[in-house]
């Protein structure tokens, strides 16, 4: 029998009003790492919070399917689910394997590293926009602009368009109790409509950018058709934008709340930064969960899961599992080893853009802390009303004004 706790609610956005509900996670890991969670407008789902169990589900796509019911706990209408299944995030092998192979060469560590200087230049320009003011909103003026600008540059589209796409992803990732399905699908349709225009432009005017490469990417004589391209575009905008913004915003809040650990980082920024980025990824865990659907009856941590059941793996909970991390609720910027699951827990759906994400986070945190060493909060932060993505929406800060560095 699964233990039941009255205080457990992983569906309400209120549970994530100031970050991950670590107390709920702790109870679940200790009492029911595979927990039968009620669902007011649905059949319920299994919430998986233990590190080993999250990895087990992630590595068995033949048992726990992404395609069968999608990756969100709430069930979409058949037409919408059919569209989402054109995204590799919502595919199972062998179909997933083919599409991943089609684009994986564009996301290798070597390919990502070629963009480091450009990403660093973008970070410098963003900080130049606010450095003379001495105050700003860390999310709107800094963290939110970075992935918007980087995605725009990667895809070869105007920065203003990148900012609009970022606004639309916020709508898509908001919890069902704050945004209607109609609003969510309208945002999705605006993004995919824009993607069709981008594809047409890149076919006519190819350039040295990711969108042009996606248009021409080929495996075994196959390239992406219009529908497939729009699906990849939607995935890039969602996965490459919101998560990076939330990582940087949440990571900065975590550091400001721990001045001793922040001082250690300041004292050896070049030496500590790579490990610090990994620890901040673990601690922040921007993606809250991914859903899978059981394709057969299976037992997990003593619980009998039936074919057709929804199964949600919670990365933030797994990243705080004491069986995998010593003192997991402490932020230790030099933590090694650090086998976190912020980019996924192994298996076919490990994040394609993880190398880009690490570079963006490292460049931003390194320059931000160097140029604004006395950064401090001036008010209470607010958080995204989402049970799917975790991160702040507003973080008012101040710092000593400085002159722009320029190009």
UniProtKB/TrEMBL annotation:
Superkingdom: Bacteria
Pfam short name (any one): p450
Gene3D superfamilies from the UniProt entry: Cytochrome P450 (1.10.630.10)
Entry-linked InterPro entries: Cyt_P450, Cyt_P450_B, Cyt_P450_sf
Family of the protein in this entry: Belongs to the cytochrome P450 family.
Name recorded for this polypeptide: Methyl-branched lipid omega-hydroxylase Cyp124
Record organism: Pseudonocardia eucalypti
Taxonomic classification: Bacteria, Bacillati, Actinomycetota, Actinomycetes, Pseudonocardiales
């Amino acid at each position: 029998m699964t233990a039941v706790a009255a205080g457990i609610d992983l569906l309400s956005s209120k549970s994530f009003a100031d970050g991950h509900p670590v107390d709920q996670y702790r109870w679940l890991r200790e009492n029911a790492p595979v927990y039968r969670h009620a669902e007011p407008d649905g059949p319920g789902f299994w919430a998986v919070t233990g590190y080993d169990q999250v990895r087990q589900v992630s590595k068995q796509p033949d048992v726990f399917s992404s395609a069968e019911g999608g990756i969100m706990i709430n069930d979409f209408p058949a037409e919408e689910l059919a569209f989402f299944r054109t995204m590799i995030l919502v595919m199972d092998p062998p179909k997933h394997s083919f599409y991943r192979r089609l684009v994986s060469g564009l996301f290798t560590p070597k390919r990502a590293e070629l963009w480091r200087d450009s990403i660093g230049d973008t970070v410098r320009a963003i900080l130049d926009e606010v450095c003379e003011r001495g105050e700003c909103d860390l999310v709107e003026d800094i963290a939110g602009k970075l992935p918007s600008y980087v995605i725009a540059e990667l895809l070869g589209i105007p920065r203003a368009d990148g900012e609009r796409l970022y606004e639309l992803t916020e709508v898509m990732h908001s919890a069902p109790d704050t945004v209607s399905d109609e609003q969510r699908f309208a945002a999705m349709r605006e993004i995919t409509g824009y993607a069709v225009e981008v594809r047409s432009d890149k076919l006519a005017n190819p350039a040295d950018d990711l969108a042009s490469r996606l248009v021409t990417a080929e495996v075994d004589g196959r390239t992406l058709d219009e529908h497939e391209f729009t699906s990849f575009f939607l995935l890039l905008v969602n996965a490459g934008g919101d998560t990076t913004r939330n990582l940087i915003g949440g990571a900065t809040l975590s550091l400001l709340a721990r001045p001793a650990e922040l001082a250690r980082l300041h004292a050896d920024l070049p030496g500590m930064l790579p490990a610090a980025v990994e620890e901040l990824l673990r601690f922040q865990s921007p993606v809250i969960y991914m859903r899978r659907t059981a394709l057969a009856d299976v037992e997990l941590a003593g619980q009998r899961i039936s074919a057709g059941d929804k199964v949600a793996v919670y990365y933030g909970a797994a990243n705080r599992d004491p069986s995998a991390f010593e003192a997991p609720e402490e932020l230790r910027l030099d933590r090694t080893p650090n086998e976190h699951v912020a980019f996924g827990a192994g298996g076919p759906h490990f994040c394609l853009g993880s190398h880009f994400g690490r570079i963006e986070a490292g460049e931003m945190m390194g320059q931000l802390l160097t140029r604004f060493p006395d950064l401090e909060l001036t008010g209470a932060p607010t958080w995204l009303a989402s049970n799917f993505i975790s991160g702040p929406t507003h973080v008012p800060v101040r710092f000593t004004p400085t002159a722009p560095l320029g190009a």
